[in-house]
C-alpha cells in the first residue's frame, strides 16, 4: 500500500511538474518561432495610387528624409471611424504648416486588407489634399496592426514618424506633448529615441467603467508586460507613439509580431538596443467599434508576451535587422 506524500513531497512534485511544463513551453516557443523571415511586399504594395489615379512607386525608409513628420494610420474596416480622425489630424497639420511654412508632413493610411470602403474613404483625402500630403497604401491581405504599421513606416519620408490609430481616440494636437517628450530625451544616441503617448493617468476612471472581469484581465496583462518584457513603460498599448526615423528603422526591422502585442515587442527591442523612451500623458477617449474581442484578444496577447520573452531568451529570435523586398 502506497504511503501518502508529505507536504514537502507534494511541493517537490508540483515544482517538478512546473519545471517540466516550463521546459515544454520553451521548446514549443523555440520550435514554432519564425526566424527573421524576409519581409515580402506584394507587387501591388510597391505602388500607391496618387490623386490623379496614377501609380507611383513607394519610397523607402532607407532613403534620406524629405518631410519633417510622417503620420502612419493603420486601418482595418475603418470606413466609419477614419473620417473623424483624418479631419482632426489634417486640420491640425494644415494650421501648423500655415504658422510654420518650414513644417512639412505626410499622412500614410495603410488599409490592412479591409473588406469595406476604407481605401475609397482615404482616397478622398488624397484627392483633396494631394498625394504629397496624403498617401494610401492598400495591402493585399490582412497582416495585423503591427504588420500594417510596419509597412507604413517602411515607406515613410519623415524625420519623425508618428503611429496614430484610425479611431482618433487620442486628441491629435497632443502630438506636441509627445514631441516635447522626445526632445527632452536629447541627446539621442545614434539619433534614436521614442516618445509614447500614455493613458496610465486615466486608469482609475477606466476601472470604474469596466466589469471586474475586464479589470482583472487588464491587471493580468499589465503584470505580464512588466514581468516578462517592458518594465519602464506603464502603458505599452496606446497607439500614439512618436519615433525618430533611425529608431523606427532599427526597431521595425527587427520586429517579429504583427498583431496586437507588437507594441510590447517594439519597446522590448528598443530597451535591448538602449534606445531612450519617454512616456507622456495624452488625452484619450474610448471610441466604439474596437476590433479587440476582450477575452480572446487578451489571451492571444498573453501568449505572445510569453513567447516574446522565451524566443529571445532561447535565441530563436535575434536582435538583427531586415530589409523589406
Automatic annotation (TrEMBL):
Chief location of this protein within or outside the cell: endoplasmic reticulum
Entry keyword annotation includes Endoplasmic reticulum: yes
Top-rank taxon: Eukaryota
One GO biological process term: protein N-linked glycosylation
InterPro entries, per database record: DPG_synthase (IPR035518), Glyco_trans_2-like (IPR001173), Nucleotide-diphossugar_trans (IPR029044)
Keywords, in A-Z order: Endoplasmic reticulum, Glycosyltransferase, Membrane, Signal-anchor, Transferase, Transmembrane, Transmembrane helix
Catalysis: reaction(s): a di-trans,poly-cis-dolichyl phosphate + UDP-alpha-D-glucose = a di-trans,poly-cis-dolichyl beta-D-glucosyl phosphate + UDP
Recorded GO CC terms: endoplasmic reticulum membrane
Bilayer topology annotation: Single-pass membrane protein
Location(s) in or outside the cell: Endoplasmic reticulum membrane
Assigned protein family: Belongs to the glycosyltransferase 2 family.
Protein name stated in the entry: Dolichyl-phosphate beta-glucosyltransferase
Originating organism: Patagioenas fasciata monilis
Gene coding for it: ALG5
Amino acid at each position: 500500500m502506497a504511503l501518502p506524500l508529505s507536504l514537502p513531497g507534494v511541493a517537490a512534485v508540483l515544482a517538478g511538474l512546473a519545471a517540466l511544463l516550463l521546459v515544454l513551453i520553451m521548446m514549443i516557443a523555440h520550435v514554432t518561432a519564425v526566424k527573421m523571415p524576409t519581409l515580402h511586399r506584394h507587387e501591388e504594395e510597391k505602388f500607391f495610387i496618387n490623386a490623379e489615379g496614377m501609380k507611383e512607386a513607394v519610397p523607402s525608409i532607407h532613403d534620406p528624409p524629405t518631410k519633417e513628420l510622417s503620420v502612419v494610420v493603420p486601418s482595418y474596416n475603418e470606413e466609419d471611424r477614419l473620417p473623424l480622425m483624418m479631419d482632426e489630424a489634417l486640420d491640425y497639420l494644415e494650421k501648423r504648416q500655415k504658422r510654420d511654412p518650414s513644417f512639412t508632413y505626410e499622412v500614410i493610411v495603410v488599409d490592412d486588407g479591409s473588406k469595406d470602403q476604407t481605401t475609397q474613404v482615404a482616397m478622398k483625402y488624397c484627392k483633396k489634399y494631394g498625394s504629397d500630403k496624403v498617401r494610401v497604401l492598400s495591402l493585399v491581405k490582412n497582416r495585423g496592426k503591427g504588420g500594417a504599421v510596419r509597412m507604413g513606416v517602411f515607406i515613410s519620408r519623415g524625420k519623425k514618424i508618428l503611429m496614430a490609430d484610425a479611431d482618433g481616440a487620442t486628441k491629435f494636437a497632443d502630438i506636441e506633448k509627445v514631441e516635447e517628450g522626445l526632445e527632452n530625451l536629447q541627446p539621442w544616441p545614434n539619433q534614436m529615441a521614442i516618445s509614447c503617448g500614455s493613458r496610465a493617468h486615466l486608469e482609475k476612471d477606466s476601472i470604474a467603467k469596466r466589469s471586474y472581469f475586464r479589470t482583472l484581465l487588464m491587471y493580468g496583462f499589465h503584470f505580464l508586460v512588466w514581468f516578462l518584457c517592458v518594465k519602464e513603460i506603464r502603458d505599452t498599448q496606446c497607439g500614439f507613439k512618436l519615433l525618430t526615423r533611425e529608431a523606427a528603422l532599427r526597431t521595425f526591422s527587427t520586429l517579429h509580431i504583427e498583431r496586437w502585442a507588437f507594441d510590447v515587442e517594439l519597446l522590448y527591442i528598443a530597451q535591448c538596443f538602449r534606445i531612450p523612451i519617454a512616456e507622456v500623458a495624452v488625452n484619450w477617449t474610448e471610441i466604439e467599434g474596437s476590433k479587440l474581442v476582450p477575452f480572446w484578444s487578451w489571451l492571444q496577447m498573453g501568449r505572445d508576451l510569453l513567447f516574446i520573452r522565451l524566443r529571445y531568451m532561447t535565441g530563436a529570435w535575434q536582435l538583427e535587422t531586415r530589409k523589406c523586398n
